[in-house]
Amino acid sequence: MNLKTNYNVPETTIVLSLINDKKDLILKLENLILTQEETILRRLNKWFEFFNENYYRGVCMYSQTIFAIVDASRYDDVFKTQTTHEFELSLKFYSHIFESNIFISLSELEHARFLLKLSLVFSKYPGMVSGSIKESISKLNNGSDNAALKTIFSSLYVKYENPYILTDKIDSLTNEDIDLLMYILQGNNIRNYKNIPFPISRKESFIFINELPKNISFENNLLGRAIISSKLCNTKSCDIKLLKPLLTYSKVFRYNLCDFNKDIMFWKSVFRFISRGNSAKYVSIQDYIDYFEYMKYSEAPNYSLRGRTVFSVENAISNWHESADYPKNMELISQKWHRTTEKDVKINKDKINYLFKEIINGEELFLESKKLKHCVFSYIDSCIHGHLTIWSLQKEVDTIYQPFITIEVSNNKITQVSGKYNRAINDKENKLIEEWAEMMNYKMSIEFCE
C-alpha 189: how far from its chain's center? Predict the structure, then answer.
């Protein structure tokens, strides 16, 4: 099998002869060649040359590292902006690993990505290395999992406080994130950082560095999201375990961070409210967040929780679901947006026909809400702006397809799945959705937070 381009240079040919998954790599390379500048491709070839030359010194880390490098060539701005000198320092970092004579096996792509990012950080901040490189690499003697890789970074760079919200996600940090991390590791106060997006108090900066829950993570705008999380954690009478579901279910936090920060006092009151505990089992954290966002950002900008009880809010949510009377402005019903796929998908499983139908207009979204008694219609702005897509999973009953599950997809990830009244799906339904996700090349990324 050959590349369908003119990029069949010798080093790439050697890689294709050594790699484990040749077919997958060819697809990635063909896409890369069509989308990236020649300078990136030339640099990629030099990476290939280095690892081809050292193949027998790192045979069990070769394939995953090659895939990590190819992915970084497309998505990682730290990788793509390396100078020639920085590139040479990254190779020097890997040379230290090979010269250590430690047997390293990278069975997971995420481990290879983490190690690659360590080499990129090393290339940009070699003068900040405070520990022995040889001793740091020896941490891999007992395995190369995430814990061991994080230990390497800590032993190289951490002398004072360790901001885990940054160091635990080294592999996904941008150039700006790494600049901030190194600024903090030098003992500087985050409040004085030049590119800080939102003001942060002394107490909040302490929370940022030391007390943010380790179970939260962010795919983008890490600094802004971590600062807002610190503000929320600096709220009295709150259950810190509920921070993750609050952030997970909030569309405003996900797509309109500046609005969330502008209304931070409202969101602190939401955090306090959901921390009281809910009296009715059918009202979930997701129900609360969806309802509060609908009221605050669609119905009443001055909406407040002052004077409201758990019982009164749960009654309001129940009535909201039952009536599905959201579109007071009929312009929303007439809104349309583009399909993301050519056609809907039918699957036959256990002699039952299922239809995965992409919702592409306000009327369909409203009917989905009305039939399943949940609040998906309140997501219409996110659909219109292309932040996410909504799919209706329907079952054929007497030749008619009836909706019974609603699916949210964002950035090729399935982020929420709900049945009638926001019920959780069962194992059988989950397997059906997984089968569809594989067909669509979607990743299951549902957060079960409660």
Answer: 27
pLDDT > 90? residue 302? yes
Give the contacts of 192 (CB within 8 A, at least 6 positions apart).
none
Dihedral Cα 324, 328, 331, 332, nearest 10 deg: -30
Location of structure tokens 């290339």? 123
Angle in degrees, 0-180, between the axes of helices 285-294 and 264-275, rounded to the nearest 10: 150
- Residue 192 placed within a domain: yes
- Angle, alpha carbons 79-83-87 (nearest 5°): 65
User: In three state form, how does the secondary structure of 33-48 look?
Assistant: HHHCCHHHHHHHHHHH
Domain boundary among the residues 140, 157, 174 is at 157
- Give yes or no: residues 317 and 373 share one domain: no
Q: Do both 146 and 71 map to the same domain?
A: yes
Residues 279-296: pLDDT tens digits?
555 578 888 999 999 899
**Contact assessment for residue 334 and residue 362, using Cβ atoms and an 8 Å cutoff:** yes
Q: Which domain holds residue 29?
A: 10-157
65 lies in the same domain as 142: yes
User: Residue 396: beta bridge partners?
Assistant: 401
Element housing 16 (H / E) = helix 10-18
Domain boundary, last residue among 234, 265, 290: 234
Q: Looking at this protein, which amino acid is placed at residue 434?
A: E
Whole-prediction pTM: 0.78
Query: What is the rounded distance in angstroms from the CA atom of residue 53 to the CA atom of residue 298?
Result: 60
Residue 450 counted as domain residue: no
Q: Count CB-CB contacts under 10 A for residue 23.
A: 10
**pLDDT tens digits, 125-172:** 999 998 788 888 888 877 777 888 888 888 899 888 889 999 888 888
Measured CA to CA in angstroms, residue 369 lies from 191, 277, 283, 337, 420 at distances of: 44, 26, 16, 18, 9
Structure tokens at 184: 């903090």
What is the arrangement of strands in the sheet containing 400-410, beginning at the earlier edge strand? 345-349, 352-359, 389-397, 400-410, 413-419, 443-444
10 Å CB burial of residue 427 (0-12, 13-18, 19+) is: exposed
Contacts of 297 (CB under 8 A, 6+ apart): 252, 259
